Each structure stands twice: as structure tokens, then as C-alpha cells.
Amino acid sequence: QVQLVESGGGLVQAGGSLRLSCTASGSIFSINFMGWYRQTPGKQRELVAIIIGSGSTNYADSVKGRFTIARDNANNTVSLQMNSLKPEDTAVYLCRCNAVRWYGAAGRDYWGQGTQVTVSS
After folding, report:
1. Can you tell me the distance from the alpha carbon of 86 to that of 63, in angstroms, rounded to the nearest whole number?
2. Mean pLDDT of the chain
């Protein structure tokens, strides 16, 4: 099994910053991509940012220019630097990892438990 551990969530005032980190562990041959999603009560989970194997990134329009996703391939870690936070960024942030566990296998999705980010006004 592949497990993801997220950290860095917390309470911050509007305009502040947080840095989330997600580390994948277990038997991992390679990682196709990793990303961050967020979910609030009553709303569907949405993509925040994703980084693929080539290093290319994609962001939700609502966070472009404020959030930055980065990776440390050697440590199977992805981070999300969140600046200029807004109350509407409040959500549970979940890490997604699409990983290959052995050569020739298809990539499969693994999800972290989530870390709460609360932005106060």
C-alpha cells in the first residue's frame, strides 16, 4: 500500500501564508503525478494544483498567482506554498498521488487524510 501524510495546515489570517507538505511512503516504483485538492462541506472536491512527471504544473484559476506547487522527487514529497490566503480558501486540503508500485503496472490513485486550512477574515 501507498500512504500519504500531509502536514502544514492550520489557522491563518487573510493575507497570510501556509505551506502544505505531502510525503508518499510505501512500495513506490515511480510517481506519475501528485496534486492537491480541497473540499468544503456541501461542495465537491476540486483540484487546486497538480504537478506531473515532466514538472509541468496546473492550477485552479482561483489560486493562480497565489499558490505554488513543487516536488521533491527523491523524497516523494509535494508541497503547496499558499500565499495571500483568502477566507474562501478555507477547506480540507487533500494530497493525491498517482503512483506505480512496480515496473509495468498502471498508475493508481492514493489519497491522504487531509489537512485543515482555515483562513479568518
Report:
1. 10
2. 96
